[in-house]
Amino acid sequence: MRITISYRSLVSLLLLAASVVAAGSDANEPRQYFDEETGANVFFVSRPLVFFHERASFGSDVPRSSSPVAPNMTAPPRDYVTVAAAAVDRTGKYTYMLIVYFWSVGAPPEAENACLGRERLSLQLGDRRIQLEPLDGLARDAGISQPIHRPSRDAKSAIYASDLATLSLIAESAHPVLYCGAEQAPIKHELLEDRLPALRELVRRLSN
User: Fold this and answer.
1) What is the domain range of residue 40?
2) pTM value?
3) How many domains does the chain have?
C-alpha cells in the first residue's frame, strides 16, 4: 500500500526537526538559552523567515506548492533562504545578527542561477532596501555554538551583522522580499509565509 504524505505534513516535520524549541511555549515567543561553550546568553526567534525562489525550469503542469518539503521527496525545484534573527548577550553587551541558511529542494540548482551560500543579500521593505553583507567566521565566533533553525544538514550557512533598529524595520514591514546575488541581476525570493509576528516578539523582548 502506497502512503501519500502531503506537502503541508512534510514541512511541519522538516521545521520541527530543524528548530530548537522550548516545550510548552507560545508559537511566537522568543527562545533563549545559555551557551555553555561560548558563555553567552542567546536569544532567537521561535520561527525564522523563509524565502523561496521557484526556478523557471519547473513544468507548469505540476501544481505549485507554498511549502518546502524534504529534499528526498518529489518536489518543485526551488531554492530557499532561511533567515533567523538572533541576539547574543555577553555580560550585558548585546550583538545582533541574522543567521542565514541557503538550501534547495528538487533538482540541484545551477550555480549561476542560485544562491549557494555566503551571498550578498538585500531586503526590500516597501520603498526601502537594506543591504546585508556576510561576515567572516561562523555563528560560534559570534557566541552561538548550537544550530538554530537549520533546515537540513546540507544547508549552507552564513551570518550577517544587524542591529535592533534594522530587526524592527524588518519585523514591521508588510511583505519583505529578499534579493540574493550580484547587484546587476539579483535573484528574487518571495516570503513563504507570514512569520513576522515571531520577529516582532523578539524585537519587543530585546527592547525591554
Assistant:
1) 7-207
2) 0.78
3) 1
